[in-house]
Amino acid sequence: MGTDLLHEYAHRLDINTATSTVRLYFSDLDLTSWGNESRTERMEDRLHRAIAQLVPRIHASTYAQR
User: Fold this and answer.
1) Count of the separate structural domains present in the chain
2) Longest distance between any two alpha carbons in the chain, whole Å
């Protein structure tokens, strides 16, 4: 990003599809705390939620025909 690594969120991850983009920001602590179970779980949760935003959903119809 061209940001000094002392910046709180110096790292950016863009996840793109043909129609959507999700942008996540990470701190050095987020990326360097490998082995910390709770932080790893939080990071994985953020990634799962970001990817879920890119998956198209077919909405169920409100009315059904008989």
Assistant:
1) 1
2) 62
